[in-house]
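Rotation project, supervised by the postdoc (A.L.). Task for the rotation student: set up a whole-complex structure prediction and record inputs and outputs verbatim in this book. Inputs entered:
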Amino acid sequence: MSAARDPVDDATLALLLEVAGTPKPGNVDRRRDLDDLRFESFLGGAVGAREGLELAATDEASVGDAFERGVAGMADRAGTNTQFGCLLLLVPLLRATVDDTDSSPAGRLTPTTVDRVTRDATVDDAVAFYRAFEHVDVAVADPPADAADLDVRRGSDAASVLRDRGLTLRDVLAISADPDDPDRVPDRNAQEWVEGFPRTFRAAEWIRADTGPLTDRAARAFLGLLAAEPDTLVAASHDPETARRASARAAALLGGGDPGSAGPADTDEIHADSVHRADLDAAESLATAFVDEGINPGTTADLTSAALYVALRRGAEVAP
Amino acid sequence: MSAARDPVDDATLALLLEVAGTPKPGNVDRRRDLDDLRFESFLGGAVGAREGLELAATDEASVGDAFERGVAGMADRAGTNTQFGCLLLLVPLLRATVDDTDSSPAGRLTPTTVDRVTRDATVDDAVAFYRAFEHVDVAVADPPADAADLDVRRGSDAASVLRDRGLTLRDVLAISADPDDPDRVPDRNAQEWVEGFPRTFRAAEWIRADTGPLTDRAARAFLGLLAAEPDTLVAASHDPETARRASARAAALLGGGDPGSAGPADTDEIHADSVHRADLDAAESLATAFVDEGINPGTTADLTSAALYVALRRGAEVAP
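Outputs recorded:
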């Protein structure tokens, strides 16, 4: 790996490898468009997000402003929402990458440094996050009944509530990460924000330790992540039980044991070895089934792009 | 279209849409890898070329240095040659885009302005062009017997010959564009350099006037370009007759008439209407046949990326 590789280039490549990874059941990938979402829109979104990613990799803009700029550029190019969730994860990862509080470059991108970035997020970052929803339609679940005034679909109108209550972006995401209702599926991207990105760093190691083209490794990591936990977007657009069953079907494709019968496992319980032996041929059938059933595990794809970014920073290379 | 779109982003997107365009018979595309060349390498190459493309869009570097930097970055990321020819076309197109000799932005990217850029190329640009061959293996034909000292595979060793003879980059490419031997297939990329990019601008209009996803439009433009003229890389890696027959087979897929029996037509003779009615289903079979026969019309893919860039600058958009 070239020591001087630009983290913004790595983030762009992570977005491209994520959408190219195939099969990623239920998602747009190199071999599949969805009815209302095309592969080329993701190429446009990855290119359009550039300015926001560049801002994230400097200290000239806040994390919230960088995110909003990335979403606006993505939406302008793609004409639709392609990578909103990916950017929510990549922006703090980029900021942690360039944070020079730790002196060694190798130490810059760790759970600790990215956790510090999210702890540093402000109320203004929360306001920018809400503004980002004005650039594009994002599929989200209704908020809990007692948090209607924090519905992200309010966009800028939520600013006064955020300021009155002094809620930072991390505070806002903490609500989605840990819903009071046990029947609600937590927002995985929000969980990453408040938990130090455990899924991202774990899946990055799955990708690094795997072999073959990065697009295949990304597809296997996607299956591992989906097997581990029900997908937020599937729960929001169907229901939590559908999301749990989708994860159990992904778990059945992993190598070893019979995790399928047990339903989704914990992330911690999924071993790299099972991910590396995931059956991509069988995943082709699941991809067809998920598309037919309208099951779109988009949050799991977001996590996959974040994991690819960390894997690239740690030396993963495209296959020549 | 956003008026403020960054030409470097457009060039990156052109590289991505080119490789995603499918079917492009004989080339890597969204649905096909070749044995020794993968789709993900092209994603890496497009990202790695960024710094060179940025230099091309400023006046801080010469056209030759920007090209060499782009090739070096591409090779570092892709680990192989993915877009050498694309970059040779995109670099002067980018320079023409930002040239402010013409006052109106709309007037900046025309055959006239890009011709001025190539006329301004220097001996140093030629030396940089030769250096670029040291970063990566590029498939080229043997030079004419009387030009062995100008074999591009000599790399930096050719510098003294170039300087002694005062050959600019345009002079060097003029030799490949118009070989004395009538049995040699001219280098199409070199022809673009010395002729004001007629294939690029013509195919850009095919793409702009076409409908549907840009990846489909790119595939149809590729067939039109291949039908019009034998591919340089096919001639170099097989022979001119194989290249002519490959073009005739592409011509048979265009709409209207029976151009297939007549062999390749002139670019001027191919009408947008025939390109827009190209049969992409039939092209799938041709793609399989070309891969089986080892026919790789890579120069035609280079022209397609250049045409996509011009089409994007003139308002073409990815499909939402």
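Student's summary: Chain A touches chain B at residues 2, 6, 9, 12-13, 16-17, 20, 30-31, 38-41, 43-44, 46-48, 50-51, 76-80, 213-215, 317-320 (CB under 8 Å).
Supervisor addendum: Chain A is about 60% helix and 0% strand.
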